[in-house]
Amino acid sequence: ITIFLSLLIIGIFLVGGLIVDNTVKSVEDKVSITAYVSDDAEQSDIDTVMKAIEKMDGVQSVGFTTKDEALQNFSNSMTTNPEIIEQLDGTNPLPASIDVSLADPQKVDEIAAAIEADETFRSICDEPDNPADSLKYGQKTVDRLFSVTKYVRYLGVALVLLLVFIALVFINNTIRLAIMARRKEIAIMRLVGASNGFIRGPFLMEGALHALIGSLLAVGVLQVLRMYGIPKLQSALSFLSLDVSGNTYIMIYIVLVVAGLVIGLLGSAFAMRRYLKV
Questions:
Q1: 121 close to 69: Cβ distance less than 8 angstroms
Q2: pTM for the whole thing?
Q3: Over the stretch 186-203, which tens digit does the pLDDT of each residue have?
Q4: pLDDT of 104-158, one tens digit each?
Q5: What does the DSSP assignment read for 101-168?
Q6: Which of 17, 77, 267, 276 is the one with CA 20 to 30 A from 188?
Q7: What are the backbone dihedrals phi and psi of residue 223, each rounded to the nearest 5 degrees, phi first?
Q8: What's the alpha-carbon Rg for the chain, to the nearest Å?
Q9: DSSP string covering the chain
Q10: Residue 82 — very low, low, confident or very high, per pLDDT cuts 50/70/90?
Q11: Widest pairwise Cα distance in the chain
Q12: Pairing state of beta strands 135-136 and 59-65?
């Protein structure tokens, strides 16, 4: 039961850590750069800038939104406030834009600086006096986002490591108590000539068996939570990504079983060292 509860807590935190990491990645993946171009920009210059951006390290894809498409997108987002569209009175104040999706969101500042420094872009941007104003990616928001997500990842790793350490201490002490209860039997066998291997074998097998049963119970409970708990949680929190791949779950199950066996064997071996001395 001790091994089962300890490994179950570790397993839950591993799955929870992966879910948090996936959520963080999904938020980071929404980071993009929009570069606005002037209405009189030549298409050849726009194509030149787009090709230059595509070659930049950390860029996933580059697209182009025309003025008409920008107005249509704005209209679609204002369905609850149609009067705003009516006030435009048939005019289109929105500029065309180059839309940059990032393969590595952490490089958003670097890529934005490279686009701003591009001479062709500076000549076609809608704010030629200050090209930085033609780039929109929410710099302060992005910096704050990356700062928060970094600490979230560090905190998740620290919590898992702390739980692993607590589980090791807890399980080791439990095995020590179990062996201490049989110290007289061990002492008698040792005094009548039994070898250390003869005495140690059954205890190691018992520790391994307890660890295997405990880890399999933990795996079983995690699988039940995966099949019934996670889907209900996902439906209640549809705005979060709680999906973890089946292969990842299998890896977690293998880690828990192996960790349980190692803890059981090492715990039994270390706990018996003092009782195998005459």
A1: no
A2: 0.63
A3: 888 888 888 888 888 887
A4: 888 888 898 899 888 999 888 888 888 888 888 865 566 676 777 777 778 877 8
A5: EES-GGGHHHHHHHHHH-HHHHHHBS-TT-GGGGEES-HHHHHHHHHHHHHHHHHHHHHHHHHHHHHH
A6: 267
A7: -65, -40
A8: 30
A9: -HHHHHHHHHHHHHHHHHHHHHHHHHHHTT-EEEEEE-TT--HHHHHHHHHHHHTSTTEEEEEEE-HHHHHHHHHHHTTT-HHHHHTTTT---PPEEEEEEES-GGGHHHHHHHHHH-HHHHHHBS-TT-GGGGEES-HHHHHHHHHHHHHHHHHHHHHHHHHHHHHHHHHHHHHHHHHHTTHHHHHHHHHTT--HHHHHHHHHHHHHHHHHHHHHHHHHHHHHIIIIIHHHHHHHTTTS-----HHHHHHHHHHHHHHHHHHHHHHHHHHHGGGG--
A10: low
A11: 103
A12: unpaired
Structure tokens at 278: 């005459």
Left if phi > 0, otherwise alpha if psi is -120 to 50, otherwise beta: which for 245?
beta
**CA–CA distance, 222 with 235 (Å, rounded to integer):** 19
**Mean per-residue pLDDT of the chain:** 81
Tell me if 263 sits within 8 A of 168, measured CB to CB.
yes
The whole-angstrom separation of Cα 137 and Cα 107 is: 12
206 alpha carbon, distance to own chain's centre: 37
CA 162 to CA 44: how far, in whole Å?
58
- Four-residue CA torsion sign, 175, 180, 185, 187: positive
Q: Which of 65, 54, 26, 27 lies closest to 111, judged by CA?
A: 54
